[in-house]
Amino acid sequence: MFLKNAWYVAAWGHEITRDLQQITVLGEDICVFRTEAGEIIGLEDACPHRKLPLSKGRIKGDNVECGYHGLTFDCAGQCVWAPGTGRIPSNAKVHAYPMQERYGLVWIWMGNPALADPGEIFEIENYDNPDWGINRGAAMALDCNYLLMCDNLLDPTHVAWVHAGSFGQSATRDTPLRVTKTDSGVIVHRWMMDVEPAPFYKKIIGFDGHCDRLQHYEVRYPSHALIRAIFTPAGTGGPDGPLHDDVFIMDSYNFMTPVTEDTTRYYWFQLRNIRPDDAALSEMMSEDVRQAFEEDRAVLSEVQKGMANKTSPHIDLPIDAGPLRFRRQLQALINEEQAVDAQMAE
User: Fold this and answer.
1) How many other CB atoms are there within 10 angstroms of residue 257's CB atom?
2) For a Cys staple, 219 with which of 81, 225, 259, 297, CB 3.0–4.6 Å?
3) Domain boundary among 119, 143, 164
């Protein structure tokens, strides 16, 4: 089950062109394309006549022509031409999905179009700040339920074992976690004081010696994450301490889009507060992060299989407090949404 009244990432902006193509979000097939003016359109990918996908048809100006009998639909999903007598059946229409383009991403609203508020799209701080650099990679296909990746992104401890050569260090094994529930999701965070920088960050930070490190893992409903890493010279960090001039901040944005119940499309990029025009640094960070996420992908694919085919109950640990809290609250939102839909259908 999914939360429908929410914005999800449908694609990178450059992936949507004038060509008709099919994407799948929350198990729903959607025909997407750009109008002649560049606006992104999303229509139910099934002609109401015999259900041929509209993405198998043709684009005619800003209309879509079905490849079977030529029924033609405008950007609002209304049929504007049908063969035969010339009379268009009143039910010759397809669902039109609200779409927005922001931060280089295409966002889609999967629920009631009347409730789609662009102001609710995940806000990305410093995206257009010229003092911040950016690196990104291609979307990744995950063979797991999207909530397993949400679990992963509310679990700072896993880096000690899964990412020992990049994000992990000894302090990430045992330093206590703090869990905070917010109106929009859950935060799991901790400061690790006077520790050696992890291998990935050691190549980037602008100071030598030990550091104070913040792991801020935040996932917001339905499935969007901000992972903030802060590294500052030892003795200058902590929740109450001033940060040093050499502080390094990396904000990693992660958007998990359910394709089906057991497959996910994963979009990501990082913003950093240093060397915004250093292309070599951006390339290095993108490749190192991609390799780390490949490690996550391999683990979560096996976790998906293990949880789906388990022959004995699984257990939870104290480190699972954040993921479990997120799942409970998300399920409550889904239950509430479905109850409202059922009332309206009566």
Assistant:
1) 26
2) 225
3) 119
Q: Give CA–CA dist 121/142, Å, rounded.
A: 23
Residues 85 and 209 placed together within one structural domain of the fold: no
pTM value is: 0.95
Q: What's the rounded Cα separation, in Å, for the pair 332 and 80?
A: 41
Please check whether residues 101 and 190 belong to one and the same domain. no
Q: Look at residues 268, 322, 316 and name the one whose alpha carbon lies nearest to residue 294.
A: 268
* Site of tokens 């889009």: 257
* Model confidence pLDDT, tens digit, residues 302-325: 999 999 999 999 999 999 999 999
The Cα–Cα gap between 271 and 259 comes to 26
What CATH number is attached to the domain comprising 299? 3.90.380.10
Average pLDDT over residues 51-69: 97
d(CA 285, CA 298): 20
What is the domain range of residue 243? 131-332
Same domain, 23 and 94: yes
**Residues 110 and 143 reside in one and the same domain:** no
Task: Tell me, yes or no, whether 211 and 172 share the same domain.
Answer: yes
The tally of domains found in the chain comes to 2
The token pair at 113 is 């179009």
Phi-psi region of 209 (alpha: psi -120 to 50; beta: other; left: phi over 0): left
Shared domain check, 170 and 239: yes
Give the C-alpha separation, 212 to 208, whole Å: 12
Q: What are the C-alpha distances in Å from 115 to residues 6, 43, 44?
A: 9, 17, 18
Question: What six digits make up the tokens of 1?
Answer: 């089950």
How far is it, in rounded angstroms, from Cα 49 to Cα 177?
A: 55
Contacts of 199 (CB under 8 A, 6+ apart): 165, 166, 169
Q: Convert the pLDDT of each residue in 63-114 to its tens digit.
A: 999 999 999 999 999 999 999 867 899 999 999 999 999 999 999 999 999 9
